[in-house]
Amino acid sequence: MNPTILDVTKLLAAWIIYPISDSQWVSPMPVVPKKSRMIVMKNQRDELNNLRVYIDYKRFNQATRKDHFPLPFIDYVLEKLSGKSHYYFLDGFSGYMKIHIEPEDQHKTTFTCPFGTFAYTCMPFGLCNAPSIFQRCMTSIFSDLLQDCMEVFMDDFTMYAKSFDTCLDNLSKVLMRCIDTNLVLNFEKW
């Protein structure tokens, strides 16, 4: 099965995409070599290839008004850890999939592949404003905890404290916030 078809089938089954027949914005879905998030396939010479599919939103992104919501600098996050004896890191899982696109805008995410033409119901990777939108959402969710006991960079959460007990209290607050907002954590990276 073509890797594009495999990915599309999974997204259809999860109701993340749906078939669409008419959109002025149709982006291609090429297959490219990639080190991470790989699909391993054998080529004609029986060699293993690392392939990844992505949607090339270049044309749509060029026409999009840019959102300049700031992303934190790693230096700032490291400065916050300075002098703290306890810290921990959490990693979000499929966070973009939690951000739904208004029905009237979903056609703008249309992509084509050998299996058909589809649009997303939630925010896909590749849209130029996706990082800013996601960072704004995470900043809003954790606003009362930011700069006091945690920093957020996209779906990477850094918590810190000067004591073990405070660190556990902060962890409890962050985990409860994740539960309250349906944020899923990636425990494989722990």
Could you please describe the fold and organization of this structure?
This is Reverse transcriptase domain-containing protein. It holds the Pfam family RVT_1. InterPro entries: DNA/RNA_pol_sf, Rev_trsase/Diguanyl_cyclase, RNA-dir_DNA_polymerase, RT_dom. It is a single chain. With 190 residues, the protein is an alpha+beta fold. The chain has a single domain (3-189), classed as Reverse transcriptase/Diguanylate cyclase domain (Alpha-Beta Plaits, 2-Layer Sandwich), CATH 3.30.70. 28% of the residues lie in helices and 22% in strands. The protein has helices spanning 3-13, 58-62, 74-81, 130-141, 164-180; strands spanning 17-19, 27-28, 31-33, 39-42, 48-53, 86-91, 111-113, 116-120, 150-153, 156-161. It has a four-stranded mixed β-sheet. A hairpin with a 2-residue loop joins strand 7 and strand 8 (116-120). The chain is elongated and about 55 Å long. It starts with a helix and ends in a 10-residue tail after the last helix.
Question: Which key phrases capture this entry?
Answer:
alpha+beta, four-stranded mixed beta sheet, three-stranded antiparallel beta sheet, Alpha-Beta Plaits, RT_dom, 5 helices, 190 residues, Reverse transcriptase domain-containing protein, RNA-dir_DNA_polymerase
